[in-house]
Amino acid sequence: MTETDRPALRPPWSHSDRAIPRTLVRPLQDFLRSSTASALPMFVAAVAALVWANSPWWETYERLWATRVTIGVGRWAIHEDVRFWVGEGLMTFFFLLAGMEIKRELTSGELRERRAAIMPVAAAVGGMALPALIYLAATHGTAAVDGWGMAMPTDLAFALGILVLFVRASPPGIRPFLLTLAIVDDLLTVVVVGVAYANGFAAVPLVLCAGCVGLMIVCERAHVRHLLVYLALGALAWLFAYHAGVHPALVGAVLGLLAPAHPFQRPADVSLEAHRIADATSDHPDPPDADAASWFELARLSREAVSPLARIEHDLLPWVNLGALPLFALANAGVRLSGLRWTSVTTAIAVGLVIARLVGKVVGIVGASALVARTRLGRVPGTGGWGAPAAAAAAAGAPFTVSLFVASSVFAEDSPLLAAARVGVLLSIVVCAVAAFVLGRLAQPRHRRS
Q: Angle CA(80)–CA(84)–CA(89) in degrees, nearest 5?
């Protein structure tokens, strides 16, 4: 079918050829569905939090996030502040997306092919282990040592954002390498946070949580497709995880890994049914909705021709990018600098975190990748040596979401250790972005830099 043979469908306003949709709305929609879309709103929210927390109205900042909210009934009620509901509630959707990204890579992405996955998997392990060791060495013998998990995670949005903004001439293979590395990093981080930072387990709620997850698996095997069933079971699993002593946000990652990666209906079968319905219905029905039931059925089948994993990820991504992540940044990046007490411990946290994120990530990722390349089990990403991979590794050192999540899980809210950790995270972003820019410039051929 040529362009001239296509039916004259009436597009919505946002997809029309008018000036505003063409020049503003559609580019904005494309950006919001990109991997780097959350970096800018998060950065703006973090700056706003810093300004607010250090303004004359800083008490309103503290009061807002310390406001207690109770949800639930009886012994299962949860009495927590707004910061908890943002950090553990909304961040569940972030971990849900992370779980689905991991599932997609395992079923149809780079991680499906063992040989192709060796390099980014080794790089992710090296880029997590060495930063953790550096942080442990910097904080050895202090109360800050438990925060080693902050040094490990790679924030995909910030890493890709830095790569796009500051390393414009990076080779084509660098972006998928960094993306796959971050996905592996997410998987290992979920395991580490879930195991190392659990607050002790309560047996009965833990069994109930596992039971809800098991019921979801049974429902999926039985081809139960109504989203409300899974939402209800997921909410119950989250509630039981909280009472079991497990970080409830991690339930989102588990649910993401369970999301079906294959469509319920084969596209070929839906196409045949679409032709049948088109032949059986009138082109000009009277009344206008005389064939509504048939078209509703075709709409349902069309949705089921796309996997639940792809559908949920597509619908959820803009809400997480523009809602959950910026709110999390606003709630956790506000550090009152005038009240921060610099001691040997708080200095060790901030400085140790910066060194771990920069040196640990670059040396760990490049070193592990070089080892794999030397054994010929994988090849160097991109072309032109190790300059561009080193720039990507520096970009991967920029922490944020999960590092702040770990910090708030380890240190008390009013603790100077938490304030120092937040400062270390923010400093690490700046330092790693500058390092990525410098390494990216050095990796470019001389004639392209001039």
A: 110
Query: Please, what is the end-to-end C-alpha distance for the chain in angstroms?
Result: 48
CA distance 263 to 246: 32
Q: Determine the pLDDT at residue 200.
A: 64
Residue 208: predicted pLDDT: 92
- State residue 424's pLDDT score: 92
What is the per-residue pLDDT for 447?
40
Beta bridge partner(s), residue 81: 68
Angle, helix 39-53 to helix 325-332, in steps of 10 degrees: 30
Residues 126, 365: contact at Cβ < 8 Å? yes
Q: What is the CATH number of domain 36-197+247-262+307-449?
A: 1.20.1530.10
Sign for the CA dihedral angle at 390, 317, 105, 299 comes to negative
Q: What parts of the chain have a pLDDT lower than 50?
A: 446-450
Q: What is the pLDDT of residue 381?
A: 62
Domain boundaries, the chain: 36-197+247-262+307-449, 268-298
pLDDT, residue 284, reads 83
Summarize pLDDT for 30-51 with one digit per residue, the tens.
Answer: 666 665 566 778 888 888 998 9
Q: What is the predicted pLDDT for the residue at 427?
A: 92
